[in-house]
Amino acid sequence: MVIVQSSDRSRYDYMEHNECMIILEAIIVFKKMNSVRDTPNTITMVNLLKACSSSSELDISNWAHAIAIRRGLALDVVVGTTILDMYAKCGVIDTSRKVFNQISQKNIVSVVIRIS
Hints:
One of its GO terms (molecular function) is RNA binding. It is built from six helices and no strands.
């Protein structure tokens, strides 16, 4: 049996709240960039997708994936692998398998994520 003291629980809640705020901030910054027509590059897209995978919110993840497709970045091996990881973390294994199959040049990271 694990006993969590209230001070430990408060610290955990605080850390969890901060992580949620960082994820939300990343999404807001991306939306602002997108609204001024600043085209995202691979690095920007990967960071957005990682924020979405940390949130485990499927709707937000689908939104980010759609942006990657529209911007022509979804077929990039780094972006594709991040999309694969995002869907796996959201628990949508069938979709992650489909994304894996669409990655034209798979690397060791994409294969390991698919296996795990």
